[in-house]
Amino acid sequence: MGATSLPTVASSRTWFRIKSSESLQANIDGYLFISPWLIGLVLFTIGPMIASFVLSFAQYEILSPIVWVGAQNYREIFTSDALFWVALKNTVYYVVGSVPLRIIIALTLALALNQKFRGTRLFRTIFYLPSVTSGVAVATVWLWMFEPTYGVINNILRLLHLPTPPWLGSLDWAMPSVIVMSLIYIGPMMVIFLAGLQDVPEHLYEAAEIDGAGTWMKFWKITLPMLSPTLFFNMIMAVINSFQVFTNIYVMTRGGPANATMVYMMYLYDVAFRYVHMGYACALAWVLFVIILAVTLVQYKSSGWVYYEGRV
Questions:
Q1: Residue 24 maps to a domain
Q2: How far apart are CA 46 and CA 118, in angstroms?
Q3: Contact, 73 vs 67, CB < 8 A?
Q4: CA geometry: angle at 197 spanning 194 and 202, to 5°?
Q5: pTM here?
Q6: Least trusted range by pLDDT, from 23-27, 62-66, 288-292
Q7: Cβ of 201: how many Cβ atoms within 10 Å?
């Protein structure tokens, strides 16, 4: 009995060693294949993040030596930097103004383009096209459209005998103008809504029609709950992206007039590349990271309205 079991145990150990060797080789091969991405991640993402976190506790102006100042940069941000609060207030204004409008318009377009009619694909392409166009080019076009004297918008208002605001040159109209301009970037959000709409089971609508439900009732009781995960995703991404708005502001207003459109990223850019206070700019970047993280966590905590199939 013992003699016959020895070869079996030995062969099992041999098989285990072979399998372990093959598994190790497979792991090595896998890491070799993804090594370019891993190197890029370490050099261009993780490395700069660690460096910026360290520099946020230092006074660093590129050409001068690094001076360790501890938490002084963070204390200055919250206690004596008035422009930080202006930039944060303007950013929140932009987020609150642009995100709901973009979601509503994108969802409305998705509902319309989810219908079967001739030219649907063409209209989807037209609405998505601005999202793949250079942000600088789009902002330049809108800068010309908002021009008070020769701009298209004010020319149309004159024809209608309506007031012609100075738009980007006005303290009251500058930020609303930038918010209106941001509505052109609804393409990706619209496409995601379209994907979510096409995933709603048709039999739910058929059952609702049998029960006598109208269009609005079907939207409120079926489409919106089934679309809530897609809506939640778009909301999260839109808020994160809106907190980091920069290109439109840089091209159209540079933060003016009188800091009326000085958003957070514009202020951070000025501190880093105009005044060359790199340590302070790194501290501002990490404060923004914490703010976005906190807002995102609050959104996740309040996501009880999101319907997931199979969740009790």
A1: yes
A2: 49
A3: no
A4: 145
A5: 0.87
A6: 23-27
A7: 11
**Count of beta carbons in the 10 Å neighbourhood of residue 82:** 8
> Please, is 283 exposed, middle or buried when counting C-beta atoms within 10 Å of its C-beta (0-12, 13-18, 19+)?
buried
DSSP 285: H
Length of the chain: 312
| Residue 59, burial from CB neighbour count under 10 angstroms (0-12, 13-18, 19+) | middle
What pLDDT, in 10s, does the model give residues 115-148? 888 888 888 888 899 888 888 999 999 999 999 9
CATH number of the domain at 167, please.
1.10.3720.10
User: For residue 210, what pLDDT is reported?
Assistant: 87
- Tell whether 38 and 96 lie within a shared domain: no
Kindly provide the residue ranges of all beta strands, DSSP E only, lying in 22-77, ordered along the sequence: 58-59, 67-68
Count: domains in the chain: 2
CA dihedral 45, 51, 57, 58 (to 10 degrees): -130
3-class DSSP state of 88: helix
Q: In terms of C-beta density within 10 A (0-12 exposed, 13-18 middle, 19 or more buried), how is residue 162 classed?
A: exposed
Contact 247, 136 (CB under 8 A): yes
291 to each of 47, 84, 85, 296, how far by Cα in Å?
A: 22, 13, 13, 9
Q: Give how far the C-alpha of residue 166 lies from the chain's centroid of Cα atoms, to the nearest Å.
A: 30
